[in-house]
Amino acid sequence: MSSADTRIGLVVRGHGRHYLIEDEDGVRVHCLTRGKKSDCVVGDRVRWKRSSDHEGVIESVEPRRNLLFRQDEWKTKSFAANLDRLLILVAVDPQFSESQLTRALIAAESAGIAAEIILNKTDLPGANAARERLAPYRAMGISVLELSLKGQKDASRAALSPLLEGQATLVLGPSGTGKSTLINLLIPDAQAQVGEISHALNSGRHTTTTTQWYWIDSERKSALLDSPGFQEFGLRQISAPNLASYMADFKPYLGDCRFHNCSHRHEPGCAVLTALEAGKISPSRYRIYDELWNELSSPPKY
Ligand SMILES: Nc1nc2c(ncn2[C@@H]2O[C@H](COP(=O)(O)OP(=O)(O)OP(=O)(O)O)[C@@H](O)[C@H]2O)c(=O)[nH]1
Ligand SMILES: [Zn+2]
């Protein structure tokens, strides 16, 4: 088939082999992929053509700028493609897992996606403790935006809007941190958008197993992507020796170890261990590095 028969569309939702794509005019069409494989993800640009008045077929996926995914021993789970930014939402309460935060940052860094942190619920007692836990992240140059999404709606909107403008931004965050509050603040008709999409895909109203694409503005320039919660954030796509290069606080020391293939765990003359002892790398970040190293260098358990 020549590409003249096909048009470019944006994948805004996937469900099995069923996708909802949006054409250049913003019209949404239910499309199927050819064959059994479903290898496009939300955010992909695809070539598609109409197969009937109501449906289309996806012929191919355009090259991706990036792909954010997690990978455990058994499977790869894609969050979305062609992202401009990852926002990791954590809260004062429930207390966030630093390991999950670090994993998300490493996945973004290795995919070449800029990442920032939002600390929500700063109105609660315990805000200072949360701030302290995030201090190493600030120190390594990652922006931490403090919000109180529920109580300070206007201020939150004003802080977020410039960040999101003209971008495709994925929000990741554990349950209970205020993800729905954030989405509803920026996209008042979010529930309606979900309902419309689920209806078009026949996937049921409450299917939240895949990433959801929302337009923030009527010009369809700024998008927010919401991904369902997850328990595990595997990083099997990364090899243990490359791990440190995706950690901004380790990176400055990487060329300075005595051995070029230093694992930064027990070797003499290790610049990372020296930085740890000097307090330039935080003990919690080092502990996560060590845990990840063990995880990534152990053979799969199956
Ligand atoms: N104190 C305080 N509570 C907040 C704030 N933002 C959200 N909450 C509350 O935190 C709880 C969780 O918020 P949601 O927006 O439902 O969180 P979620 O991340 O979508 O959680 P799931 O629906 O479990 O995925 C709700 O009771 C909110 O009212 C805030 O800035 N301060
Ligand atoms: Zn070293």
Q: What is the helix/strand order?
A: EEEEEEEEHEHEHEHHEEHH
Principal-axes shape call: globular
The share of residues in helices is 25-40%
Unreliably modeled segments: none
**What small-molecule ligands were found?**
guanosine-5'-triphosphate, zinc ion
Major beta sheet summary: 6 strands, mixed
For the record, give the distance between the C-alpha atoms at the N and C termini, rounded to a whole number.
42 Å
Task: Please tell me about this protein's structure.
Its main location: cytoplasm. GTP binds at residues 120-123, 173-181. The protein is α/β, with parallel strands linked by helices and 302 residues long. It has three domains: 3-61, OB fold (Dihydrolipoamide Acetyltransferase, E2P); 67-226, P-loop containing nucleotide triphosphate hydrolases (Rossmann fold); 240-297, Ribonucleotide Reductase Protein R1, domain 1 (Orthogonal Bundle). Helices cover 27% and strands 25% of the residues. The chain contains seven helices and 13 strands. The chain has helices spanning 98-111, 127-139, 153-164, 179-186, 190-201, 271-277, 283-297, and strands at 7-15, 18-22, 28-33, 45-50, 55-61, 67-71, 76-81, 85-91, 114-120, 144-146, 168-172, 212-215, 223-226. The strands form three sheets. It has a six-stranded mixed beta sheet. The chain has a five-stranded mixed beta barrel with strand order 1-2-3-5-4. It has a two-stranded antiparallel ribbon with strand order 6-7. The protein is globular and about 70 Å long. The two termini are 42 Å apart. The model has no long low-confidence stretch (mean pLDDT 92). It binds guanosine-5'-triphosphate (GTP) and zinc ion.
